[in-house]
Amino acid sequence: MESRGTKREAGEIEVAEPGNKLPRPAPSLPTDPALYSGPFPYYRRPSELGCFSLDAQRQYHGDARALRYYSPPPTNGQSPNFDLRDGYPDRYQPRDEEVQERLDHLLRWLLAHRGQLEGHKLLKWWAQSFLPGVPNVVAGFRNPEGFVCSLKTFRTMEMFEYVRNDRDSWNPSVCMNFCAAFLSFAQNTVVEDDPRLVYLFSWEPGGPVTVSEHRDAPHAFLPPWYVEAVTQDLPSPPKD
């Protein structure tokens, strides 16, 4: 028997083949609600750091010029009678879906303010309102003709009371415990600092959260101007 690594012919050496290694399984996060039914995790209510506006042409402005205030109608008066179709034919300006804005507007604000930075529908409303600290949600109920005929205000912290007794409903503790687990999972998974590398988290009903790695287009979303602006302020790596 010919031993590995021995010379077989002049100028020809047999190199030992590495042993076959099983492929490392991709990390995943289970999504079974029963795994996240513990006590509600600690959550600090967020505070507003700033704002920016987009005008009718979707141009960025680093101020609150587009901010509008909601003035509720009298609660003891007639129905609000809002026509949801009003303004669509003559004033509505559809967004150009060919323009991939991604996070560009938010990134512009971050660059300008880096010094400052150190039922199922109820579930959606709660998730969208609880995390940013919105205390109330005003829901409009429309008729088949598209007119809002009544309004109701839901306190974000009390939304769960409407579905508490529903057997198959959602639970805020499960939602936040899973959120905390996912953020921890993402923190332990995203380990390489590379603007061209994208960690894509995916989920299909009934399965776990999975993650895959992709480079450059079409998944990369950080524009070059942002990467260049940020890296200019980073300290040089230490020399060996």
UniProtKB/TrEMBL annotation:
Signal peptide feature range: none
GO cellular component: cytosol; nucleus
E.C. number(s) listed in UniProt: 3.6.1.-
Region described as Disordered: 1-33, 67-86
Location within or outside the cell: Nucleus
A Pfam family hit: RAI1
Main location: nucleus
GO biological process: NAD-cap decapping; nuclear-transcribed mRNA catabolic process
Biased composition (Basic and acidic residues): 1-11
Protein name: Decapping nuclease
Species assigned in the record: Capra hircus (Goat)
